[in-house]
Amino acid sequence: MSTTIFETLESDVRSYCRHWPAVFESARGCRQYAEDGQVYLDFFSGAGALNYGHNDPDLKRELIAHLSADGIVHSLDTYTSAKRRFLETFERLVLRPRGLDYKVQFPGPTGTNSVEAALKVARLATGRREIVHFTDAFHGMTLGALAATGNATKRAGAGVPLPFTITAPYDGYLDDPDAALTWLGRAWEDSSSGLDVPAAVIVETVQGEGGLRAARAAWLQGLERLCRQHGVLLIVDDVQAGCGRTGTFFSFEEAGIRPDVVCLSKSISGYGLPMALTLFRPELDVWEPGQHNGTFRGHNPAFVTATAALEKYWSDGTFAEEVRQRGRELEEELGRIAALVEGAVRRGRGLLTGVWFPDPGLAGRIAGAAFERHLLVETSGPKDEVLKVMPPLNISRADLLEGTQVLLDAVRAVLGEEDAVARPVPLRQAPAAHTARLKSSA
């Protein structure tokens, strides 16, 4: 599996491939197949862009049918039948059952596009400019989103000052769990605090890149009350934690809050196709026509697969309950792993769960040992001290337990409790095209 072209021609900014030096060729469900015939169990899920695994057959069928019929692919914001079907389905299966009255904006293809639109519309609607964000937050790589991001390395990549944001302690960051809300409330009430009342607060209910800290429901409820009291808009960034990853379609449902603005991307297309939404209350729709636009905000193949995903997985509560069950099982298995290391703590919620280790280098070594055993997991947190586990939401119990057993083997190997010989996961059934290529090259 030659990697020369990537290493000589592609920018040094590449990162995941440095930890996973395999050349992947095909994938199905929770497995990826490399050029050399090796199989990898995928507990990464495209950083959350593949909540339903790779190449879901029902979504693939709809996508192929659309393309085979010469369906519209690129449309900017013109009307298309594929967009109509998505909006009708999204309203029927997601918004209406939850009593949510949101306008839908297609801001561009990625999560950072969704966040940029949210920040801009909040500033336009309120006439204020400051945005409150939280310690360890991650909201994207464009300048507005970076200004609301905590990671020093990512912020440094901007090359310019990142103004008009205020950092507050996230839930659990300080010993006093309510300190952040107390401080914000007092500062907003005191005209001499030096802290202007902001346009909005942006928050992740689970900090995916920031170390899997999960905010308590009571804390989120308190934050919502505080925002309402002071006329501050509440933005929930659900780019990674949304679309079912925590067991409900929106990650904030469990807390019973109703954000003013919601950011969605990653798995909203259901297939890994670029797509993002910014949702907001109708009275916040203060845009002038064309005031925020983007060439690829009308990606019709993504509308097609998004519609198919909603109809397949979210037509009733069955799938959500299955996700919650898998989440409980994952939390239990990762709790066993945390118990092997003194001071380690399980973090996260549902199928966005991991283990925080007191030794910052331990998570990376375990992820490396997992790759040797053909399991894909990543790390997160300011020092990459959290082992982050994100299997597909529709993973079977057998595959989930197989992966967590591989992870347990990797942990024990790193701790020196067993020989670090790789025991790859079984091949199972590879996609037909991949199998045929291997046979022809044999």
TrEMBL record:
Coiled coil, from the record: none
Superkingdom to which the source organism belongs: Bacteria
Cofactor field: pyridoxal 5'-phosphate
Pfam families, A to Z: Aminotran_3 (PF00202)
Annotated pathway: Amine and polyamine biosynthesis; ectoine biosynthesis; L-ectoine from L-aspartate 4-semialdehyde: step 1/3
Enzyme's top EC category: transferase
A Gene Ontology molecular function term of the record: pyridoxal phosphate binding
Keyword terms, alphabetized: Aminotransferase, Pyridoxal phosphate, Transferase
E.C. no: 2.6.1.76
Gene Ontology BP, a term: ectoine biosynthetic process
NCBIfam families: dat, ectoine_ectB, PRK09264.1
PANTHER family linked: DIAMINOBUTYRATE--2-OXOGLUTARATE AMINOTRANSFERASE, DIAMINOBUTYRATE--2-OXOGLUTARATE TRANSAMINASE
Family classification: Belongs to the class-III pyridoxal-phosphate-dependent aminotransferase family.
Protein name according to UniProt: Diaminobutyrate--2-oxoglutarate transaminase
The organism of origin for this protein: Kocuria dechangensis
Gene label: ectB
